[in-house]
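To: structure desk
From: M.T.
Subject: fold request, one chain
Message: Could you run this one when you get a chance? Sequence is below, nothing fancy, just the single chain.
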Amino acid sequence: MTAPATAPQLAWDTLSQAERDAAYNNNAAVADSAAWVAARDVAAAAYRAAYPERLDIPYGPGARQKLDLFPGAAGTPTLVFLHGGYWQRNSREVFAHYAEGLRAHGWSVALPSYSLAPEARLADIVAEVSTALDLLARDGAALGVTGPIVLSGWSAGAQLAVMHLDHPAVTAGLAISGVYELAPLRDTFLNGALQLSDDEIAALSPLRLAPSAKPLTIAYGTAEVPALVHDSQALAARRAAEGVPGTLLPVAGANHFSILDQLRDPEGLLVRAALDLAGGGHR
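Reply: Done. Structure tokens follow.
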């Protein structure tokens, strides 16, 4: 079978429907993805149970417009982490334990949820993330968010993070395993829920937009599906061509799921990247 791929220079239009679907099917590409998800959910539930003090903080009226905050030391940075799931599944609750790595350095970690497709359009989801950041900017001191904010996200969350790099509350970004060009998704199984419009593709694909001048580290696993590797490399190249600060961070041997181990480990590559973005260790 032709290797799943995306990019103008690769023959996307020659791929079968099955190959196009495979290009973005992270669960199918990782043999133990079901076991990874099951272990993730158990670890996240235990972490939330251990730190229940600031969970389910509303940032809007919607059922999913809430965030969890795991506070750190006063004045230290905050990582805001946006979950993935192709904008149509998952929630903040099952990613709670990834706060461990940076909290070991004294950081706070905030995890917002957002509405999902098909109940919400992608443009609406993007707007919700902005509202969550508005809350942290407005009420951060009362919540314990008193230092700079590094905005991060994984998979679909990486696209959301890059879209909000210019939010006034954000100092820098850490985008992990993201999708930065949306047009190919319209040719895959993912579009059943997303129903992407031409306007959404144009306005919400980071590769089509002028890059923010704020620092951005773009991370991906070298064992990811080629489509995500391509998008990460292309976004880094676009930023380099525009002369804006950024770093491309390949994580050797990591797949779409195991890469997040580097955020949970206090000495992981993603933790170190966040520390560098905030300007120091903050132990």
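Reply (cont.): Strands lie at 57-58, 66-70, 78-82, 108-112, 149-154, 170-176, 216-221, 246-251. Let me know if you need anything else for the meeting.
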